[in-house]
Amino acid sequence: MLPIKSKSPVVQYLLTALLVILGLMVLKALVAWAAEVFLHPIPIMGGWLKSLEIVELINVIVFAVLGFSLGAATVYFPPRLSLWKKSLVLAIAIPLVFFTSYWVRQTLWLNQISASSELNFGQANQIANQALKSASGSDGFWGYFRYTTQMPILPTTLDGLQRLTDDQKWFRSELTRFSGLEPGIFSLIFNGAGWGIRLFLMLVSVLTAVIYFLKGLAWADTVRLRRLAAGPS
Description:
Blueprint: H1 9-39, H2 45-51, H3 59-72, H4 83-86, H5 88-117, H6 121-136, H7 140-147, H8 158-162, H9 164-179, H10 183-230
Helix pairs in contact: 1-3, 1-5, 3-5, 3-10, 5-6, 6-7
């Protein structure tokens, strides 16, 4: 455990949890940035890796560390504390850490729009939100998160944003023309595949965090028992 010095067990736990959560958020942000800058721009392969969310597999490591660290940090608390109180910070930390990489990706996308159009970040954000609202029915971060389940690679120019909905319709109409299948089938396939990958990543993240949180709790209980057996120092 991190050597946090304080007389209050609550302060000790919260400081430890804060350091762990911020550290893992920074790690996920750096990995997302590196992927967007160096990996995803690779022709063909980069787009394929981005659509499969390969980089997000780091969640297995990140959420194992998160769960075990927050579980082990409960060593500061008395053993009689209820499980739901011990797991409250974990429940808050999981979405914060999970969505960090998507927030970074959205920010980099908006920066690219701003650079290509010579608009400031706020103006680029406003135009992007209008495009996302038109294409997915939602704007802001949730609009970006929803729409990238269907189209992981988004345009970075004003012309591309204006054609966002039309390009999607054209692409699916071409698939329909060549395959002879109904247009709605491709919408279901793209939406189902994108959400399937995201939900799988969420499930793996939550399960990993919970499993290792329980391992951390067990470690904390072992430490308490050793202290009790050793007696007062």
